[in-house]
UniProtKB/TrEMBL annotation:
Transmembrane segments: none annotated. Keywords: Isomerase, Rotamase, Signal. PROSITE patterns: PPIC_PPIASE_2. The keyword Transport does not apply. InterPro entries: OMP_Chaperone_SurA, PPIase_dom_sf, PPIase_PpiC, Trigger_fact/SurA_dom_sf. The keyword Isomerase applies. Residues 212-309 form the PpiC domain. This is Parvulin-like PPIase.
Amino acid sequence: MRAMTIHNFDFAGSLKAFAMRSATMGRTRFRLPKYFLGCLSALCLGFVSPSLQAQQISTQESNLVVPQRIVVLVNDEPISAYDVVQRLRLTIASIGGIEDEEQLARLQEQVVRNMVDDKLKLQEAAGFELIISDEEAESAFARQAASFNQTTQQFEDYLARLGITKQAYLDQMKPEIAWGELVNGRLGRFANVAQEEVEQELARIESSAGQPEYNLSEIYLIVDNPSREADVRQSAERIVEQIREGANFAGFAQQFSQSSTAAAGGDMGWVTPDQLSPVLAEAVANLSVEGVSEPIRLAGGYYILLLKDRRRVLEADPLDMELDVRQIFMPVTAETTEDQQLAFFDTLDSMRPEMTSCDDIPTYASKLGVPDAGPLGKLRLRDLPGSLRTILEELEMQTPSQPARMEDGYRVFFVCDRTVPEVAMPEFDQIIDQLERQKLAMMARRYLRDLRRDAIVDYR
């Protein structure tokens, strides 16, 4: 038998982040009293193992009673210790766990700030007679469950295993639903985009053809008081450290980022260098794909960037190529002998010169004595596991690959067609939507800043 390369790989799946959105970083610098930190630490550390793995909480532990002591008054409306513990559990689930009591104490401070912002949003919405009912939150809850391919009951059971009540989840959704409706209702008309602005943006895109373009996610931490500069910097550094150690970027963005992208896990979409400040553009240019930047100080606060992908403007990306793939499969079970496997390799090697057509794959499979596993369908190179991408990227059309070893046997792949995607300018309406969202997000940040400035917040 002539030498033959055997490829070994696994089809890697992806897990969706269990994540929720809260606004963060209230304006008032505050420290929780030591006795309160101790109370929450005693209650919560029992639910969190010292690792960055997603945590599961036993039903017995989740039945612990938390005192209904008031922690904060926000314009005379209370936030209780029980509310804080529930939100803390949600946050821990979002970011993938915590490591020690010190980290828990820092997280508690941030969670309370988040809850203060949420209370301000609900109060402002109520002032305009905008009240989010449980029924509206239930609909959002059902959509959230469906995004994880779960029924509402399955999702509720999952939360219960984490020691989180469904009502706590609904209570976190209500401020964001209310805030979105309030901002759109009050400020939406001021975010209109003129035709001239759209034409300028289209001209900018066209002039950027061939330039690098980055798919980015961000975490933005506001420094709203010079006295908080060191604290915010340290928080940003700790977030970077934990993400690089395996924590979930989207979870941190949803819980801590103060950018409009927080609700989408920090997703900024595709941006060009000229859409970023020079400092951010320089930082991104030096990142590798899946790399996370150091905290970047700009006016207003700190940015943390994740580079998810890169390409060039208005140029087809080779990884977006679609392949029509078919395969021949040789099963390997406990009863399959080494001689049988070697015989398959020998026969495949001898047949290779005549294997030049996808139409004849059933005949090839029959001669090899194995099933024709049929088409895999249209596959985009970008979506394939790295080792399979390597096999198919350079494979000559209509010819067999080397056998790829998988858990259940060997697969021989054929690329029967390749489709290079066409690159088109964005539609006029797409540009309008993008520019309007940017304007509205900026106004929403200012709106919340004003609410914080005028609020009376009593930390107890």
